[in-house]
TrEMBL record:
Gene3D superfamilies: UbiA prenyltransferase. It comes from the Archaea. It comes from Saccharolobus caldissimus. Carbon 2 of the heme B porphyrin ring is defined according to the Fischer nomenclature. This is Protoheme IX farnesyltransferase. Converts heme B (protoheme IX) to heme O by substitution of the vinyl group on carbon 2 of heme B porphyrin ring with a hydroxyethyl farnesyl side group. GO terms for biological process: heme O biosynthetic process. Pathway: Porphyrin-containing compound metabolism; heme O biosynthesis; heme O from protoheme: step 1/1. HAMAP family: CyoE_CtaB (MF_00154). In the C-terminal section; belongs to the UbiA prenyltransferase family. Protoheme IX farnesyltransferase subfamily. The gene is ctaB.
Amino acid sequence: MSLQHKVKAYLKLGKLGVVSLLDLAAIAGSILGYRHGISLLPIIPMIIGGTLASMGAMIINSGIEIDKDKVMSRTSRRPTVVGYVSKKEAIIVGTILSIFGILMGFLDNILTAFFIALGVTIYVFVYTILLKPRTWLNIVIGGFAGSAAAWAGYVSITNSFTLEGFLLGFLIFMWTPGHFWSLALKYREDYINAHYPMLPAVVGITTSAKAIAISNALMVPVVILLFMYLNPYYLAASAIISLFLLYLSFKLIRNPTKEEAMRSFIFSNIYLMIILLLIILSKLI
Ligand code: HEM
Ligand SMILES: CC(C)=CCC/C(C)=C/CC/C(C)=C/COP(=O)(O)OP(=O)(O)O
C-alpha cells in the first residue's frame, strides 16, 4: 500500500472530526485559565500533543476492536476491518503517537503531560478494554476521557488545577452520555449484534430517550454555572442554546425514533461547539 494511502487510512482511524472538537475543548480550557499578561504560547505544544495522543488513542481503539467493528454497520468499512491496517500495526502506531503526544505535554509542564496521559489511559484502558464490553456505565465513566482534553488545556496555561478548570471538564463529562447515547440509539441493532452493553442496547428505545433527556437536563446547570468565571453575555447566550437543546431532548422523548436520535446526536456536537466558542469569546472580548 502506498504511503499516501496509509496516511489516509490512519487519518480516518484517528477521527479528525472528533479530534477537532476535542481540540476546541482544550483551547477553551486554555482560554478559561488565561489571565492578562500571561503567555498563550503553551497552547501550541499542548494542542499538538493532545491531537497526537487523541488520534493515537483512537487508532489503538480501532486495533483492539477490529473484530467487533466487523459486525457493526457503522464501523465495518474502517481501514482496520478492510485490511489496510492490521490490528498489531494499529496498536503499535497508536501507542507511538500517544507517547509522543504525552511527551509534547512535558514541553509545557508536568500537569499538561499528566492530563494528556489521563485521557489516553481512561479511553484505552478504562473505557475501551474494561468498561465498554461489560457495562452500560461505560460511557458515563469513559466521558472523563474527554474531560482530560479540557483539563490539559487549562493546566497548560495555569500550571494549576482549580475549581474553574475542573468545571469545564465536568461539563464535558456531563455532556458525553447525551452525545453518545443518541448515536447508540440510532445504531442500537449494531450494538446488540456486537454484544456491547450500550444503554440503548440494554433498555428500550423510550427509556434510552428519557436517559438522553435527563442527562442533557443535568448537564445544563453545569454549563450555566460556568458564568461565575465569565460574564452575563455568556449566561444569556448559553441559557438560550441550552433551552433549544432541552427542546430537542423533549422532542426525542415525545418521538423516540432513530431520526430524532440522530438530530439529537448532531446537535450535541453543535451545542458543545457553541458553548466552547462562547467561553472563548466571552473571555477574550
Ligand atoms: C468516551 C467518550 C466518547 C464516546 C464513547 C464517543 C462516541 C462517539 C462515536 C461512536 C462517534 C461516531 C464516530 C464514527 O462513527 O466514526 C462519535 C462522534 C463524534 N464525537 Fe464522540 N464520543 C465520546 C466523547 C467525545 C468527546 C469528548 C468529544 C468532543 C469534545 C466528541 C466529539 C465527537 C464528534 C465531533 C463526533 C462526530 C465526528 C464525525 O462525525 O466526524 N466525542 N462519538
Ligand atoms: C486528552 C486526550 C488524549 C483525550 C482523549 C479523548 C478521546 C480519545 C475521546 C474518545 C472520543 C470517541 C469518539 C470515542 C469513541 O469510542 P468508541 O470506541 O465508542 O467509538 P467507535 O465505536 O466509533 O470505535
